[in-house]
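Q: Here's a chain of 336 amino acids. Please give me its 3D structure as C-alpha cells.
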Amino acid sequence: MVRITRENKQRGRLLASLLMVLLLSPLGAVGQNRDLMNHYQNEMQPLMERVVGAPTDNERYNANEQLVQLFEEALQVDGSFQWKWNFGTQISVLTSSDRQFRIITWPVVRDNGEYECFGFVQSYNPKTERYDVYTLNDKSDEIISANEVVLGPENWLGSVYQELIETKHEGRTYYTLLGWTGCNALTQRKVIEPICFRSNSSAPQFGQALFRREKNLRRLVLEYARTAYVNVRFDEQTMRTFENKKVKKKGRTYNVQIPHEEKVKMIIFDEIAPLVPGMEGLPQYYAPTGTEMAYIFVNGRWELRDNAQGRLDDEKLNKDFEPLPKTTPTYQMPLN
C-alpha cells in the first residue's frame, strides 16, 4: 500500500479547486475542458518522469499510483477523447481512425528487471453515446495458455502497444494491436493481439479467433531471450500470388497457375526457436531462426504465410528487397 503524503493531499486540493473554478467560470465548456486537460497534462508529466527515472521501486510505484489516479480522473472529463496527450515515447497512446476507442499503455520497471504494464481503454458506448473508461490490470503472471484465452481489462496480458492495425471485411472493421513488454531480467515478449468490443457495448475484449486454420489461437505471443531482437511490424512487401486458369492446348484443357506479383500489407514477424537443443518451452533460450513469417488479412481472417517476404524467383523483384533492420523496442527502459 502506498502512503498518502502531504504532497498528494495538496495536489488533490489544488486540482479540486481548479475544477470548481472552471465549472463556475463563464467560459464555454470547450475552453473549460481545454484548461482542465492542460492542467492534468502538466500534473502528470513530472509523475511520468519519476515512474521512469526514480531510483527505487517504492518511489516509482508511488508516482505511478498518482499517475493512474490522475489519468482516470482526466479520462472522465467531457471531450477528453479528443485531447492530444503528449508524453513522447514514455506513454503509448493509440486511437482508432473511426474514433471507436483509444488505448493508453506504459510500463513500470522494478529493480529486479520485471515489468508491470498499466493502461486504460477509452471506448464509445452506442447506448449512452459517451466514452466509457476501463482500467487495465496486468495479470500476466496468472494467465495460463496466453495464446488461447480471451481476456478482459481486469485480467489483461500486459503490453505496451506500439501499433494499431485496422482492417476491413464486408463493412466491418477489425482491430489488431502489436505490443511489447520486457517481462523480466531473462525474457521479453511481443504480441499480435486482436481487440474487439462486445455487441452494443463499450467493453473491450483482448484476443479473438481471427487466425485462419489456427483453431485455438486468440493472439500470437512471442516470448524470447532478453538479449535477442525480434521484429514484429505491419509493413508492405512484394509477394507472389497464383491465379488458377484453364488453358486449351491441342484440343485438351489444362488447369494452370498464372503467377502475379503484388504489394500487400502484412504483419511481418521473426520465427523464434530455442538456440540450444532440448530447451523447448524455456523462452530465455529463444531467438530468431532467420526465417521471417507473415500474417495477411484475407476475408476477415489473418492467414499465415511463410513465403511473403522477398522469396520470389524473379531476381529483379528480389533485388529491391531489403531485410527489416533489427531495432530495440521503443518502450524498453534502462533498468535501475
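Q: Can you summarize the key feature?
A: The first strand starts at residue 92 and ends at 95.
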